[in-house]
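Please annotate this fold before class:
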Amino acid sequence: MDNNNIIITIGRQIGSGGSAIAKMLAEEFGARLYDKEILNLAARESGFCEEFFEENDEKKGFFKTALQFHFPLFTRNSYYNTDFNQENLYLFQCDAIRKAASEGSCVFVGRTADYVLRDMDNVVNVFVSADLDTRIAEIARRRNISDDEARKYISEGESRRASYYNYYTGKQWGHCESYDLCINAGRLGHEAATKLIADYARQVMGQANDKSHE
């Protein structure tokens, strides 16, 4: 792997702007952006259709035990029997994340990428937050729903997201100890938050490269 490659992982509260910031970071560094795209890569690597990964995206406990199921292979019209559980699904996704990271600079959104890539030196792990009122307003606007509906959407979505992250990583989703940098994008705005993260990443990568040449 090229030591100049940089990997940034973005954890984010719902409605915080984390995905938008990830896109700007990818443009800043000329890196590949993997959000939903990692599901497509995992599907190609595993042989399962992308819709199957989407239905289980960042969700824990969809399968309680390994059972006999009919799963789509490549398309919804082709099926076969297999023993399968959600841990297998997660492992396929982990393999896809590692493969993408080995091929060049990347920005990953969610999906425990910070944990999956924990043994790599050129990774910067970021968590993006915003105050609840800002996030409610953003989700209400984006989904054309009421503030109460947006509040419920955020609460339920983040409960699933935290459960998934905590289960697979043994860490706490959103807690500062789990990341290199936590940033309130609601106060800074997306552009300023992107610049701060980019500057931090360059500083960290500079130190990592210095150590590699010692």
